[in-house]
Design a protein that fits this description.
2 strands; signal; Uncharacterised_14.7kDa; DUF5333 domain-containing protein
Length: 135
């Protein structure tokens, strides 16, 4: 029995590095996924609303911080790039954005609604609002 326990302990220790190396998909990392969502929504707002523009340097710094978080969690440049280039992830983010706009009473392509939503996000100092500025 003692030998069996010893063998189980050795096997468990041998598999720990493999378990530690397993990373969830970036879509399942809230810090990264929610950050990318904020960027996507802010981008949609600024493209639709003529009275709101992007804080480009702030957006660039924020994107850099998301990349740094992912790298600190062990994701490679190739994994990050694959996530950003994934058609499935783009479609998922677009659907998530559509749900967000609908929940806020705004439809895509509605400048008045997007402007109101953008101003509200700026007013409440949300992550989306931090990426935007009123002209």
């Amino acid at each position: 029995m003692r030998k069996l326990q010893h063998a189980a302990a050795i096997l468990a220790c041998a598999t720990l590095p493999a378990l530690a190396a397993a990373k969830p998909p970036l879509r399942d990392v809230p810090q990264v996924d929610n950050g990318l969502f904020a960027v996507a929504v802010a981008n949609e707002i600024r493209k639709t609303c003529p009275d709101i523009s992007a804080r480009m340097f702030t957006a660039w710094r924020f994107a850099q911080s998301l990349e740094a978080k992912a790298k600190a969690m062990g994701y490679t440049d190739a994994e990050i790039e694959a996530h950003l280039d994934s058609d499935a992830e783009k479609a998922r983010m677009k659907a998530r954005g559509a749900a967000y706009f609908k929940a806020n009473g705004v439809s895509r392509g509605d400048p008045q609604g997007m402007c109101a939503l953008g101003r509200a996000e700026i007013q409440k100092s949300s992550q989306i609002g931090a990426l935007l500025k009123a002209k």
